[in-house]
Amino acid sequence: MVLCAGFLFGCVSKHETPQERAEAAKSMFEQTTKTFHIPSAEAVGAEKTRLQELAATGYEKLLGKYSDQVIYASQAERSLGNIRAAQGSLDEAVKHYTAVASKYPRQEWEVLMAWKSAADLLWENGRKTESISIYQKVIKRFDTVDATSVMKTVVRGSKARVARAS
């Protein structure tokens, strides 16, 4: 495992082409997800914690090296939020979820899913006032005529939560 982690988080040439940077970011994201994040969902106890922290480290390294690779960096930011939520670090999770929209505003899917995750997490933890403001952002930004069916479903759920809180 140490060799895998060393390979995964190793140094990258300072002279990467844009294509090489995109491929490296994709590879780092996929390796982190497959090797650590997904297995952490099935693990228990100390092994779960270890895998979550290795996944978090992988995502943080990706964000440090490849923040310009918006497709993978936005996914890494949201995934970091997912890990912190699974660990019970509510405020840390929400920080990562909301960072997706501020750092990667054009990544529509990631913004939608990050805001939904943040709002749902806050709602489920009794922080309804904070969750409502995020649900309202979802509605304002994604309640459009050209929204996909998934977007419309999320907007519908967001409207229901806002109505329930009134």
Account of the protein in words:
This protein has 166 residues and is an all-alpha fold. It has one domain (20-165): Tetratricopeptide repeat domain (Serine Threonine Protein Phosphatase 5, Tetratricopeptide repeat), CATH 1.25.40.10. 81% of the residues lie in helices and 0% in strands. Helix 2 (18-42) runs parallel beside helix 4. The longest helix is centred in the N-terminal third of the chain and has 25 residues, at 18-42.
Please give a handful of descriptors for the protein shown.
mainly alpha; Serine Threonine Protein Phosphatase 5, Tetratricopeptide repeat; 81% helix; disordered N terminus
List the helices and strands and how they pair.
Layout: H1 2-8, H2 18-42, H3 45-66, H4 70-86, H5 90-103, H6 108-124, H7 128-142, H8 149-165
Helix pairs in contact: 2-3, 2-4, 3-4, 4-5, 4-6, 5-6, 6-7, 7-8
